């Protein structure tokens, strides 16, 4: 309670200070620097589409939305999406199996946090069917190709259907016009290499954009500790946490809106990762109930995973403006992915002793006659080949009749698992088991209808936002997702919002069908639902912008992975009711050559069914950035401070109570210098003071996950023409 009171006091003080100072006469020399003045105005009026499917400013949408531009993430030295989303309040990220990244939003942090966030690339849904995620088969989406990334914090099912549960992340490929060629390269520590080329060509109404990119990072050697399950000794090993990623994209656009715009886009990605977090302890939490073990870190020094994935996407769309400003938009898409996991289980114990002193050998095959549920030492190889195709039609009109903006649409989506296999290979190369997962060959068909509208009242001082989406699933029935909001402009500089959203997430293939040995089937699994209520207050002036959001959410029929009582097997069930509430603050201030950005959040979240708090999510997260634009030359320096307090080293469960993590503090430095119109150089230092920080392990690896130490890079961007 002390922390809550302290944070609320800070939030109220900052908001009050902003409101007071913002209304005072500006002391800035108006002619000092046009670029600096325009940058904040552009920020305040930047157009977003993720929250309404219209191009509107963040002030005018009935969602808590954030927009991060390429300039923003480059100024923070971002390498991956987790770095980018640090600019968003109430968002916590950490690594997971095979170099993927868990994105937890507004307090709900578990091993399933890779699910429940809908990802899209220029309107194409990216989430897989097996895991309802992108973390494994699309772990990196190349930032150098993106113009901006938009994010909804909170429900988005009324717009995007399933998976838009806790949030939505929308990648937007660059849309530069004309002829250009840009290269960006960087080298750094540890063993960091990055290079990209983006180019464009225009002829009449035809615009072609394409890009190539490569990133490699290696040799972090992040130490981890574990307790030997047999003799209880304390040991240490290390994870390399390296990855290599190659990407390419092509975009072809022809026409103009009045006569029709045709667009074709293709995107390809190949990702390889080695020695990230492994299987942890989660699947072995019931072992101490039957066997005499000192810990459940059965993987020992082999608590690591590797990953290989390939992804290719193609989409085409057509958009045209008709009479009365009615716009018709049609899109079709197809993508396929292949993903291989490798789990190091070569250090599993070869026998376990029961609490009564009886020794049982490990399982060599599925049919081994032993009470010991643990397989003998081996390496697990698990694959999944998936594809997804769909099409949608949208018809919309902006404020013509009855002062109403409206959109109607329909669509079809098919998700398929073409192949999924598991191999268990012994240390000497012998294939111990080879089998297909139960969901191999499964597919899901989804049809949807959508209606969204916004009506203005009181000379447009008040806008009501309302909408609904209906989804019909071939395997889990139908679901309706409504949304409702009110946006009131109190004054030209002050806006307030009230928002309600309902979201759902349909069970994935593995959640319903299980896997061959570790997850049991549950065909009765139902979609989980969440209802979120939000109030926002936004104050904007020429040099200040402040947004305060208060939210509460109720998450019902939550899908959770729990021990089945049959050895090391688990099962997905609708078991939990959860609740969260929180306060979010975003503040931007710009005066003279200084700019300051702050986002902060305080969140409380609880599993009401089990009486456990989601302590793996930091109660307090703050990000403070200060940038200075030099006047004697074209250079900018920025200092960023991220802090997280009050969280544990993992996700608490009935059988596991992780220790508290030490407070997290990380300072990052960025400098960029434009030598001329074509060349810019830059350098980044992350974790400037080389502080040992711990992130939670949602799979229960002992002592959490060590975050990166000090890393740096230096690079250049060249615009050739």
UniProtKB/TrEMBL annotation:
Pfam families the record matches: Plug, TonB_dep_Rec_b-barrel
Superkingdom of source: Bacteria
InterPro entries: Beta-barrel_TonB (IPR000531), Beta-barrel_TonB_sf (IPR036942), Plug_dom (IPR012910), Plug_dom_sf (IPR037066), TonB-dep_rcpt-like (IPR039426)
Signal peptide feature range: 1-22
Span of domain TonB-dependent receptor plug: 59-168
PANTHER family: HEMOGLOBIN AND HEMOGLOBIN-HAPTOGLOBIN-BINDING PROTEIN 1-RELATED, TONB-DEPENDENT OUTER MEMBRANE RECEPTOR
Name the UniProt record assigns to this protein: Receptor
Species of the source: Litoribrevibacter albus
Lineage: Bacteria, Pseudomonadati, Pseudomonadota, Gammaproteobacteria, Oceanospirillales
